[in-house]
Q: What sequence folds into this?
């Protein structure tokens, strides 16, 4: 089961929550298929994945508390099945990359799902392989998703 919600401070700017939920559910089979196995591959064993959309200030608090880094970041994944996404970071990146906000947020969600499927991006070679996989999944899901503003 997948749940998606936006915190109050980003509700108006965030992609439509139900659309994002459907899009991430569409990405789930591909993420499960490329699971890396082992202890870090928890996606198939989780009863639920919860995705929360928030602003930079809120994600910076979580980043400081859990990863000892007080700066905002794009996405944080917890292996108990929680994915935090900064809509403000997604807005900046989407503008720089010339993409719709919804596509950037979807990319971050897929990134989080791949972490839950055992993918890691700490080493350059692993990060490149993960980026290639997430872009392929994004392209497939985006092409199959109904159009969305933002």
A:
């Amino acid at each position: 089961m997948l749940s998606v919600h936006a915190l109050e401070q980003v509700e108006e700017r965030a992609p439509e929550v139900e659309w994002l939920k459907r899009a991430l559910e569409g990405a789930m089979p591909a993420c499960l298929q490329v699971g890396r196995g082992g202890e870090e591959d928890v996606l198939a064993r989780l009863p639920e994945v919860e995705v929360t959309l928030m602003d930079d200030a809120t994600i910076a608090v979580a980043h400081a508390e859990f990863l000892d880094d007080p700066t905002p970041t794009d996405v944080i994944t917890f292996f108990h099945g929680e994915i935090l996404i900064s809509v403000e970071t997604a807005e900046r990146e989407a503008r720089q990359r010339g993409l719709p906000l919804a596509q950037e947020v979807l990319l971050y969600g897929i990134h989080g799902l791949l972490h839950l499927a055992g993918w890691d991006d700490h080493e350059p070679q692993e990060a490149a392989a993960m980026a290639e996989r997430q872009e392929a999944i994004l392209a497939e899901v985006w092409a199959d998703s109904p159009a969305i503003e933002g």
The mean pLDDT is 94. Helices lie at 17-33, 56-67, 87-97, 101-116, 124-144. DSSP finds five helices and four strands in the chain.
